[in-house]
């Protein structure tokens, strides 16, 4: 049946009405006023409205703070909630029906494609930045994907959680953690400093207690050298309570102030112990010598925290040192004077011995001439003969004395000559042979006790003279009532060799021992001698750097001890 014009008009009007409804629906869907989905099917786009049962679900999605979209198989946005639109800064009309990749930065398109494929295959998760429509700022999102079916059509539901706040919180937490660690270290440092300060206070109290208990003036100073403590000995000494640096400095003698400060500054610079001497004014206006000493006190790190020092009164000791120095100077002057006297004496002895040789030789010649002029001695009267004999003996003694004086002068001139090591045993044997006749005559018993290899540093001829004089004297000054017992022994004694000649002869009283080694000193007149032998022995020993002394008891015997350098 062919439709009439009226039918066609009615049908045309219905189609126009449906078109207006469809356009209104599409507009409502695009603006979010109607719950519907636009799905592209085989017959073209289809509009699906949500059933009333899903209205509560959509309301829940709209209330979420996270973003939510439904994507068609071609990647276009079928649905977007208000939270995502607000974050992206776009109206819903600019999101719905548009490709979701329009909001993804170019450098993340490849990553999105991988998530896209994984999301359609199974559930997928990842992180992705989206670009704000207004300021083009990127915001990071955590992405969750799942496939949903509406009216037989599959869609990809995507939840997007803004993680910028979480990252910001993480950054803040990191900063807070660092600050907390810094605060913890500061607190630990404060605790350590407080503990160190308390320990230092305890130490200072203990140090003060100890320093108050010592008899010296005690003080402490900080690492810069500024005085921090003085015990009561200082205040008792100076008689004033103040301890300003100016008052302390004013107490030091002006002549000692600069050297003392230089020593103190050197110790502060080098961290070496302090030791100085200076005069400090006391409460009675007297300067007394003080010995100042100080040591640095260090912490566990080896840093100097303070100096601890004392002042010790050494005034009497200093005065004694000055007296000793004066005595040494006086002794030095006396020694120089004695040296000059000895030189003059040696010169006199040398000159006298030389000048007297001529006259005594002339006297000897005159006596010989007189004897030749006189009658034969047997015919001379007794007194004349005795006088001539006495003159001869006097001239002989005079000549011998002159020779001995010459030996003394010669000995003085030999002082300073280099000595050489000399074996002692051969010298003793040679002297014993020289005295063999006297040993037999006196019946003396000689005992020799010394090692064959024992040596001394001495001039050999002087060593021979020394041994000869000591052995000869032991035999000459024998006791007539007993057999002479003479012992000569030698042994090492430190840097020396100790030579001892001991006898059982007459012995020497204390007064005689004091003048025994003097020039021309003779203790016994019944034995011939000039009193010069022991003087020469002492001179030879001392010139070589040795020493000689005697130990004797009257009527018991004597022991002459000689230290000779090795």
Provide a descriptive summary of the structure in words.
- The chain is α+β, with helices and mostly antiparallel strands.
- It is built from 15 helices and 19 strands.
- Strands 4-3-7-6-5 form a five-stranded antiparallel β-sheet.
- Helix 11 packs across helix 13 and helix 13 packs antiparallel against helix 15.
- Strand 1 and strand 2 form a beta hairpin.
Brief digest:
The chain is built from 15 helices and 19 strands.
What's the mean pLDDT score? 80
Strand segment count: 19
Could you give the order of strands across the largest sheet? 4-3-7-6-5
Main β-sheet: number of strands, strand sense, barrel status? Answer: 5 strands, antiparallel
Quaternary state reads single chain
SSE layout:
Layout: H1 5-31, E1 36-41, E2 44-49, H2 55-63, E3 67-71, E4 77-80, H3 82-88, H4 109-121, E5 124-131, E6 138-150, E7 153-162, H5 164-212, E8 217-222, E9 227-230, H6 232-238, H7 245-250, H8 254-270, E10 274-281, E11 287-298, E12 304-313, H9 315-373, H10 382-413, E13 420-423, H11 424-434, H12 436-442, E14 445-449, E15 455-458, H13 460-476, E16 485-493, E17 496-502, H14 510-514, H15 533-543, E18 547-553, E19 557-565
Parallel strand pairs: 14-16
Antiparallel strand pairs: 1-2, 3-4, 3-7, 5-6, 6-7, 8-9, 8-12, 10-11, 11-12, 13-15, 16-17, 17-19, 18-19
List descriptors:
566 residues; alpha+beta; five-stranded antiparallel β-sheet; 15 helices; 19 strands; rod-shaped
